[in-house]
Amino acid sequence: MKKITVILFLFYLTFANAQWNKRLFSKDPIINLENFQKQKLYFGFYMGFNGYDFKIDYKNDIPDVLVKRTTGFNVGLVADLRLQEYINLRFEPGLYYTKRDMYYPSSYFPSTPTASDRLREVNSTYIHFPLLVKFSSLRTGNVRPYLLGGGSLTLNLSSNSKSLDDNAEGRFRMKSWTPNYELGFGIDIFSEYFIFSPSIRGVFGINDELIRDKDPNSPWTSNIESIKSRAIFINFTFH
């Protein structure tokens, strides 16, 4: 899916390059889709990438858990409600795949740990429900930058929250629902037939997501005060 997204994006850039030079950057560009964003409600879809991390706070000052991030994939829908000429309300539900590897220092364990003891692979499939406010600038030709901000709820389908097993049986558990706040920016590029909107934003989990092990002295959870998700989303939206 990542390769398909990159191929589609590069194909679009190649196909549209000549038109963009003429329509976007000439002295008197041809105005595309002049009235499209004046609609009260319009829809679209997006594809993109994510980079999820953990912000970990500790009870005691000992070596940190190392979190290795990977690049995940996003896909979703967009519903855009026009509130005012420069302000829109957006709902962007989507499906997000990601993976984080957590490496625990040997000092966390009462005896020499195995490699599997030290490693926790956190594979996550999220359904993300963001409600965002979009603040657009004046349109210049066929380009219109904007800022985004708002809140979201994330459902972790891979949380293991209902599992009776914990880290003693190799099962890392997290809470199912996470509230977040989000901030970002992007740009609307008006082509002849649709609006292409690349954007980037940060997502910041608010609450502790960790479910503690049954053993209060568990080497995997006893020294952790809180774990909160942090993420960067890069999305390519089409209206």
Task: Outline the structure in words.
By secondary structure, the protein is mostly beta strands. Strands 1, 2, 3, 4, 5, 6, 7, 8, 9 and 10 form a 10-stranded antiparallel beta sheet that branches. Helices cover 11% and strands 51% of the residues. The mean pLDDT is 87. It has helices at 2-23, 115-118, and strands at residues 41-58, 66-69, 71-84, 87-91, 94-103, 119-136, 143-156, 177-190, 195-205, 224-238. The protein has one domain (2-238): Porin (Beta Barrel), CATH 2.40.160.20.
Using only CA atoms, what is the Rg? Answer: 22 Å
Provide the residue-averaged pLDDT.
Answer: 87
| Secondary structural class | mainly beta
Q: What is the CATH class designation?
A: Mainly Beta
* SSE order: HEEEEEHEEEEE
CATH topology: Porin
Helix percentage range: 10-25%
**Shape field:** elongated
Structural domains: how many: 1
Q: Based on DSSP secondary structure assignment, what is the total number of beta strands?
A: 10
CATH architecture type: Beta Barrel
The low-confidence parts are none
Count of alpha/pi helices: 2
What are the main properties of this structure?
239 residues, mainly beta, Porin, 10-stranded antiparallel beta sheet, 2 helices, 10 strands, 11% helix
